Amino acid sequence: MVILSGFWMFQEYSRVVYEEKNITAYTQRANYTYSAPVTEPNPLYPEGTQLGMGKPAYFFSVSPTADISFVYSLEAAESADISVEANTVILASCKGGYGEEQKIFWQKGFPLGDSKTAQLKSGEVLTSNFTLDVPQIQSKAKEIQDQLNYSSDPTIEIVTSINYEGKINGKEITGTESFAIPVNISSTYYQMPEEFGFVKNTYNNIWVQKPPSLSTVKLPLLLFLLSVVLLGAMIPVRKMSRVDPEYIERLEKEEKNSSFKEFISEGKLPENRKSLLQVEISSLQDLIDAAADMNERVIHDAGTGTYFTIHSGALYIFFDAPLGENQINN
Q1: Could you tell me if residue 160 is inside a domain?
Q2: Same domain as 112, residue 47
Q3: Cys bridge to 156: 183, 226, 235, 284, which one at CB 3.0-4.6 A?
């Protein structure tokens, strides 16, 4: 049992196990930054001032346009060599319906600047710069609303689509990703987010070797330890089964005669016992009773296994084992 459980435990611990893991193959990063130049006379800012990102509002009467920069990069786990094309549009749309069931009623895209192309390696960036004329976009969206006779406020977004093709980590890859930021336009001003960055990971599912774990050998280890404990318990039991039968018999006799200990002393048969009249008593109890009647004490000779008492030239004796009788006769 110990050998089998030990072998089982070794097999389980050394068994090769694989697990599926998601490994990042490549990461695409994109970011929009912008500023709004002051181009109209106003009581707040001198003309030519650049209003940075994060203003609560940008007024049409102060800075009706925004200069926007879009930056894109791709970082591969190993290597990349791709052709990238960036196209930016202003996407105007209007949704209707109830709760999460809203659907797009209409949608229209207006190109923003020219397309931008570049050949990128891992970590290199593509930058696209363009100018957003907010009142013009507002006018185009309103024109569509008027023609549709639909008065709900449209949603305006800046959407840059990236088309990429080439080798990533040694494999031919073709893909498209879109990156959008909202532009909130009211009747006299517009708002844009303070910062809008994107990180998009693409994963590969691979099988990797799982390191050995104690959890995999829990059952065989438990069986092995149990076998060791049982083997350890059997050893003393087997030793006990080999005890000399005569020793066990002697212990049983001592236990049996323990109630007579107060009447018995240890000693030896006298050497002149042959000159004494020998009277054999049939039991230790009878010998003790006779000794008490004679006011004598019983003597135990451990060497011959006999009990005796001497009174008036007579040897009263009880043989506890045949061996004792033979030794005396010899």
Answers
A1: yes
A2: yes
A3: 183
- State the Cα torsion 72-76-79-85 to the nearest 10°: -30
**CA dist., res. 114 & res. 92, Å (int):** 19
Backbone conformation region of residue 242, classed left if phi is above 0, alpha if psi is from -120 to 50, else beta: alpha
Phi, psi values for residue 55, rounded to 5°: -70, 145
The DSSP annotation for 216-284 comes to GGHHHHHHHHHHHHHHHHHHHHHHHHTS-HHHHHHHHHHHHHGGGGGGEEE----TTGGGSEEEE-S-H
The tens digit of pLDDT for each residue in 4-58 reads 655 555 565 566 666 777 888 999 999 999 999 999 999 999 999 999 998 999 9
Residue 191 lies in a domain: yes
Do the beta carbons of residue 168 and residue 76 sit within 8 Å?
yes
Give the number of domains in the chain: 2
Do 160 and 47 belong to one domain?
Answer: yes
What are the beta bridge partners of residue 118?
84
Tell me, yes or no, whether 223 lies in a domain. Answer: no
Same domain flag for 65 and 205 = yes
Q: How many residues does the structure list for the chain?
A: 330
Domain extent for 312:
260-329
Coil, strand, or helix at residue 49? Answer: coil
Whether 205 contacts 1, CB under 8 Å: no
Whether residue 237 is predicted with pLDDT greater than 60 in this model: the reply is no
Residues 99, 197 within the same domain: yes
Residues 67 and 155 placed together within one structural domain of the fold:
yes
With contact defined as beta carbons under 8 Å apart, do 169 and 78 qualify? yes
Confidence class of residue 199 from pLDDT cuts 50, 70 and 90? very high
189 with 295, same domain: the answer is no
* Residue from 174, 153, 201, 155 nearest 22 by CA: 201
Given a contact cutoff of 8 angstroms between Cβ atoms, the answer to whether 39 and 65 are in contact is yes
CA distance 262 to 305: 18
Cα(88)–Cα(90) distance, integer angstroms: 7
**Residue 250: what residue type?**
R
